[in-house]
Amino acid sequence: MPRRKAFVLFELMNAMLYTARAAKARGFDIVALNHNPLCATGPFTVEPGLVDEVVTVASWSDAAALDGVLKDVASRYEVVGTHSMLEPALPHQAALRQLAGLPTTDPDTLLGILDKTRVRTALYDAGLSALRGVPLDEALTWDSWRFDGPAVLKPANGTGSALCFEVASTTELHALAERVRTADVVNPLMRDYIRAHGGFVLEEKAAGELLSVESVVHRGEVGFVTLTGRYVLASDPVVEQGMQTPYHHPDQVRLAALSRAVHACLGFHHGGTHLEFMVAEDGTAELIDFNPRPAGFASPVSIGEAYGLDYAEVLVDIGCGTAPDLGFTRRPPRYAVEMVVMPPPGTTEFRTIEFPEGSIAARATKTPGERLSGRADQLDAVGMFIVTADTAPEAHRLGLAARREVVVNGIRLGDSPHNTVAHSPYIGQDLPVPDASDAPAAPVAPVTPAAGRQP
Fold first, then answer.
1. 283 with 254: CB under 8 angstroms?
2. pLDDT digits (tens, 9 = 90+) for 9-30
3. Are 74 and 100 in contact (CB under 8 A)?
4. What does the pLDDT look like over 278-289, one tens digit per residue?
């Protein structure tokens, strides 16, 4: 008896719902490998009948158990495609793709890409970065500060800016080292992932504005999709507060070229990617995070709203090993701004959230009763929503106005310190639309290691 064709989603959540629907419409069975229950409230509610089978994953850190799960799924289904947005699941997704004969970045290469220490070393050695990074344990042996400026302490394997701190001296470093080793991470999936790998890395801080390059890679060929500009928390720029899609930065063509060079350097072969760069005023760019998955938040919704298509179709194509049609990226776009909102200062429990009328994909990111840190860490975000407009200035204005009207636990956020954002002067501006689709694979600017660097 022939096996049924299945599209497998690893930790089906959030906007992955649209990818599941698009795959279902192609006649595939939908199999969800999930640690958490399927979403039952809000705009990403998984409707009855969409998922044909849910396979419960006890832990994404239990490689031996997951190996058996993957072999079982591959034996019972003809796996025709996969999709995941969760870092701990990505190597396991790659392993299933190998079993199914689908194009993939191999699991060992993915593990290297997910390790920030190994990524920084590879980029530095290839001349694609002037920044140095060292394991925390090594940095703690320093008698004096060996970097020319401040650095960022972060998990070697982490996500969502969890446990990321700026530090500028050995005294601060020793104090922070104890803090990160004892700190709790609210999100259990991220907590397990960070703790399973254990180590922390100290990286020199990159100067400039934060933005992202979104791409889809088909069998080694990098297809540029768009740039996304960022809103960050004014009081702590490590904490992301939203994005503008698309974002026609003046250096877009060179950023797309640098992105291609980074993909080649790290050996990423197939799938969606979300690369975060810091871009200085002189145009020099530094990769600060290579996410070997499509952009998070509700980015597929934002891209679809901006370009007038169901972006989930692109994600299903790449998930099935089919070259996607990226012709839509040459259309005149609309603009989408997705905002992330934090609770008022001192909030330690989430209860309710209300969004302004007309918000798209508005949803709580915490459940009632869920505890919060009281700070404004990335993983304390309590809600997200999207607004759209025909122009970048109008989308920007609407986004800022709407976030002030969000009500959390009965309190209007207004101009709270946890609700005040910073952004590049290019955000919300009508800028020329460059064509980055055929940019050559060359760095944005010559990158030379800074003087006085320690070997």
1. yes
2. 999 999 999 999 999 999 999 9
3. yes
4. 999 998 999 999
